[in-house]
UniProtKB/TrEMBL annotation:
Species in which this protein is naturally found: Lasiosphaeris hirsuta
GO molecular function: metal ion binding; oxidoreductase activity
One Pfam family of this chain: Tyrosinase
Signal sequence, start to end: 1-22
Gene3D superfamilies xref list: Di-copper center containing domain from catechol oxidase (1.10.1280.10)
Boundaries of every Tyrosinase copper-binding domain copy: 89-106, 251-262
Keywords in alphabetical order: Copper, Metal-binding, Signal
Protein name: Tyrosinase copper-binding domain-containing protein
InterPro entries to which the protein is assigned, alphabetical: Di-copper_centre_dom_sf, Tyrosinase/Hemocyanin, Tyrosinase_Cu-bd
Amino acid sequence: MKFLHLATLATAALALPSDSLAARQKKTCTSPKLRKSWAKATATEKRSYINAALCLATKPSRLHISTHRTLYDDFGYIHAQLTEPQRIHGEPVFLPWHRYFVQVYEDALHSCGYTGTAMYWDWAADWAAPSKAAVWDPVLGFGGNGSDSADGNGPGKLRVVNGPFRSLHPTYWNTAVDPHWLSRDWAPGHPEGGQAEMIGNAYSPTVMDEVNSWTVYDKFWPALETSPHGAVHAGIGGGRGDMGPVSSPNDPIFFLHHAMVDRVWWQWQQKDPQNRTFAYKGVRNDGQNATLNDVLPMLGLAPDGIVRDYMDTNGGALCYIY
């Protein structure tokens, strides 16, 4: 299933925190940090993560954009600008670009006092009943679905009415300036047609086995991007939620979703580290062959990266495991 709506550097005063790309590249990764599943995190860890994510909406933007003022909106803006036209989806850079993007988000959380790592939602474990997953807890999670009864949100959106993120007010919908309350539109299940809620059947064990059966990168990444990745976006965002449009980082659950995508890639790499850690192959959307020297653009949110530096989570610019 396709992903719905396939989806200047800051001033010195707004510089990246000390654990930024430049600082990390000078370190040797001897003690990689462990990224946890949200379901296995402690209540204290969850509260700390949530508070830091909310803090991003109080931090000044790193971009020189007149239409928004906060670091929170920077993430949705950058993702949308790089998706229309397609520069980070539907081509080999999809996995390393989003790996770097999640790391930039983790660094931003650190600037808000968070001391942990990025966490992931193991949607592959929750595929049979995604709506009951721990990530949707109204207190120690991301809140639930949007509501038709919520007013004041403009046409075509379902406002999230519970949970710690219910007061988030994103600036962008796709690439347009369209301020609105955080919205979700969970895809309902249709058992009579074999369709699970939130399109869970598209990230079932059978599907994940098929994805992981590919032994070469240019077969593996399209399989992962199309069905599991795209289905989770569509299952949460639908047509009236923030996870549907290309401004999908509006919804903080985006980063737990993409940490899980990254984990699936990391596990695939670990099955054959010698041959898969730096396996990177395919044709870019501009018709050129992909190389490890391809650029990972961040448009001023963080320094541009290079694919090679983000292939190994235990080296280069990174230092974590799952």
